[in-house]
Amino acid sequence: xxxKMLLSALTLMVMALTINPLDAAPKAKTRKxxxxxxxxxIGDGMGAAHIxxxxxxxxxxxxxxxxxxxxxxxxxxxxxxRVTDSAAAATAFATGQKTNNSKLSVDPDNNPMTTIIELAExxxxxxxxxxxxxxxxxxxxxxxxxxxxxxxxxxxxxxLLPSGIDVAFGAGKGNFDARKDGRDLLAEARNxxxxxxxxxxxLDDVHSGKAIVAYPTGRNHLPxxxxxxxxxxxxxxxxxxxxxxxxxxxxxxLMVEGSLIDYGGHGNSEKDIVAETRDFDNAVGVAMDFxxxxxxxxxxxxxxxxxxxxxxxxxxxxxxESESGVKTRFSTGSHSAVMVPLLTYGTGxxxxxxILDNTEIHDKxxxxxxxx
Length: 372
Ligand SMILES: [Zn+2]
Description:
The chain is an alpha/beta fold. The protein has one domain (37-316, 324-369): 3-Layer(aba) Sandwich (Alkaline Phosphatase, subunit A). The protein contains twelve helices and 14 strands. The strands form three sheets. It has a ten-stranded mixed β-sheet, with helices on both faces. The chain has a two-stranded antiparallel sheet with strand order 9-12. The protein is globular, with a radius of gyration of 22 Å.
């Protein structure tokens, strides 16, 4: 009897194998479970020309981005505009859904859409955001907050702690402790067990646990690189990774934004674009080094959109001649609709590539971390 049952069980298994040819297919190079840490690095407004400008500036000496192992291109259009803003673009990364420009992780009818940070927290991952902008600015905000209007900074700030986020480094302390409703959200964070400081260097002796850095810039961003920001972004990236590693054994999701590349683009300022993109690239190097030292880490580098309609052309339109210099040209003081570069590095780099829609970046991250 036992033998008969065993035999029919075996027969069923053989049938199952025969019926589903996928079972016999060779295994993918990387299993889902191989990736436990994802660092999503967003150069706000960083198109291919912005990166090229840095390359030209340093005579084509390699950037950290040159270490990338894979990549592709990302489409950026929003629900109601072929030219996205940062809010709709970050919503696509954070929720996997397109929305209208100016909305943050809500649909066009203002219904909240679950973000990667909310999903990752529920699944036991450590989560964080690092930006050179105010913490309530569109890109970081879309990952932890929901708002009908991107500039509703009081509403956005109040959602930072409830999101469960472990690490948040950026500017705009005033959004948290100089509020219309009189709440001091930073005092509330301290009571909830966060280390709260107003400069990244004040975390030099802190090596574990949750932390918030909110620079005393009123409601505004950190200064531009050319106005003396220093090495905040690479330092903040390294500290965020160190702290997140201490917060969960399961793994982490960290979003790092080079927020002010976009300001260089809006200002059509070649010098600001070079300084801001290079600073972002230094942070990319920190993330890549972390991936080298921590197998299971995937670094995804991309932009939310291109800003400036920037291009670099030869001074001499006759390209049969040798070059007589190049010049940078901008076609707009706003964003453009062109696709943006995507670069990947580390474990599972080959799983995120080709031409992807911005919503698919979210889907890939969820698939790799097993988030539902
Ligand atoms: Zn943007």
